[in-house]
Write a structure and sequence with these properties.
Blueprint: E1 10-13, E2 21-22, E3 40-45, E4 49-57, E5 63-70, E6 78-84, E7 99-101, E8 107-112, E9 118-125, E10 135-143, E11 158-161, E12 167-175, E13 181-188, E14 200-206, E15 221-224, E16 231-239, E17 245-252, E18 266-272, E19 287-301, E20 305-314, E21 317-326, E22 340-343, H1 346-349, E23 354-355, E24 360-363, E25 369-375, E26 379-385, E27 400-404, E28 411-415, E29 421-425, E30 430-435
Parallel strand pairs: 21-23
Antiparallel strand pairs: 1-3, 2-27, 3-30, 4-5, 5-6, 6-7, 8-9, 9-10, 10-11, 12-13, 13-14, 14-15, 16-17, 17-18, 18-19, 19-20, 20-21, 21-22, 24-25, 25-26, 26-27, 28-29, 29-30
């Protein structure tokens, strides 16, 4: 059921027809009945389709959701930031009825400054539709804590960066302890011409007010083109305590002809020094390429290791996994099975197919590892692992929980200060769900 726009661009509807099944309701991994309607909130923007892009949990129990919305025709895509209260309702003190529309579309990642400002990174869109020309320049936007545009940032609240390539796009925004902003993404020559589509990793750094930092790379920009690969695409990044930057993604060699998919992708991890140079204390040249095939999606850095979530390609399909690396780039063999832990949702879904993704990775306050992504084709799967990469028996069913919907696309996830787990995914609307950390929470 769709309703007219009643809160700016957003209205809220009930969920009885949206959520079809949740594992272990009321227990650890089950829906939190104190949130929204039975553990969920549906944000209904009057568009053809919506996507959840990023989530941030705030210390007061509220959260922020970055979304993209596609009216019909899809050439008029726009982005919003919504603030959700700890009780699971849109916060009327933020934006218009809890929703702030960004002045530029294409938001992909966000951070919140110590002053409560919201910075969103993404890309400007080209003259054509999103499915044609695609993004062109790196984009930063900043909102005040109430959702209004912060005109003191960049130029009128916006900063764009053209790296002199046809297409630049941000995938992850990080904030250093000194307030500087690190943007990780990719650049490539063209979007439509598959012969020219050879993306390379790009890292840029800005001061706190949105100006390129000339002490980083070349005038604030670093482009990494690895000689042994034709394609390197970043997916996420994290900061080490010493200021080094860990980037994860995929690498592949191009096959002959027009095959844009190239050879099977391999999981890629890079580490940069604080000045933008590759760190040769990590895997000798700053680059670690896993023998595992698949696509890395997220990363977290701990005191003695790097954890990477990845959708791995295996016999019979695709599985959601976490890989552990030592800080020198070597595999951490004591984690999981030879450095890899896998979440298998097939028994919960009652299917033999292996078609899961690992979209988001987090560490809770107890050191447990939380993994979220698509389970099958129409469910969100959340797995919680011990620090050693074993399934946490206190969560869900043998460490896993699934919530089945009518449709699921990109999955976002954030862990709250009380270790409750927020997930979101889109379709016709965006559904935000909150899972309990422990039974009776």
């Amino acid at each position: 059921m769709r309703r007219a726009r009643t809160i700016g661009r957003t209205s809220v509807e009930t969920l009885e027809r949206r959520a079809l099944f949740a594992a272990t309701p009321g227990g650890g991994g089950g829906l939190d009945p104190s949130f929204g309607n039975g553990g969920q909130l549906v944000v209904n923007v009057a568009t053809q389709s919506d996507a959840a892009i990023d989530q941030v949990a705030l210390d007061d129990g509220s959260s922020l959701l970055l979304g993209q919305h596609f009216p019909s025709p899809q050439s008029s895509v726009f982005s919003t930031v919504s603030r959700v209260t700890s009780a699971g309702a849109l916060d009327p003190a933020f934006g218009v009825g809890g929703v702030a529309e960004l002045s530029q579309p294409g938001g992909m990642s966000m951070v919140v400054t110590p002053a409560g400002q919201i910075v969103v990174a993404g890309a400007t869109l080209g003259a054509g539709t999103p499915s044609a020309d695609g993004p062109e320049d790196l984009l930063l936007q900043r909102l005040n804590a109430d959702g209004s545009v912060d005109t003191t940032f960049g130029t009128g609240g916006i900063t764009t960066t053209d790296t002199a390539h046809r297409q630049d796009a941000a995938v992850k925004l990080l904030q250093q302890a000194d307030g500087k902003l690190v943007v990780v993404g990719y650049e490539q020559k063209a979007f439509l011409s598959r012969v020219q589509q050879s993306p390379h990793i790009i890292v840029t750094r800005y001061d706190a007010d949105g100006h390129l930092d000339g002490t980083f790379g070349t005038n604030g920009v670093v482009v990494t083109d690895l000689p042994r690969f034709d394609i390197e695409r970043a997916a996420s990044a994290a900061l080490q305590a010493d200021g080094k930057i860990v980037v994860v993604g995929t690498a592949a060699e191009r096959e002959a002809g027009f095959n844009v998919e190239a050879s099977p992708a391999r999981i890629l991890v890079l580490r940069y020094n604080a000045n933008g140079t590759l760190d040769n204390t990590f895997s000798k040249d700053g680059v670690a390429v896993s023998r595992r095939r698949g696509a890395a999606s997220d990363v977290r850095v701990e005191a003695n290791r790097i954890l990477v979530s990845a959708s791995r390609t295996v016999a019979g399909g695709r599985v959601a996994s976490v890989l552990a690396f030592k800080l020198n780039g070597a595999v951490s063999a004591g984690f999981g099975a030879n450095g890899v832990a896998t979440a298998d949702y097939r028994k919960l879904l009652g299917t033999a197919a292996r078609n899961d993704t690992a979209d988001r990775l987090a560490i809770d306050s107890t050191g447990k590892i939380v993994l979220a992504g698509r389970a099958g084709t129409d469910a969100i799967g959340v797995a919680r692992l011990t620090a050693k990469g074993r399934a946490d028996p206190s969560f869900g069913t043998r460490g896993k929980s699934v919530t089945v919907f009518t449709a699921v696309n990109n999955v976002t996830m954030a862990v709250q200060i009380d270790d409750k787990i927020l997930t979101a995914s889109g379709g016709t609307d965006i559904t935000i769900a909150r899972l309990l950390a422990v039974a009776g929470d």
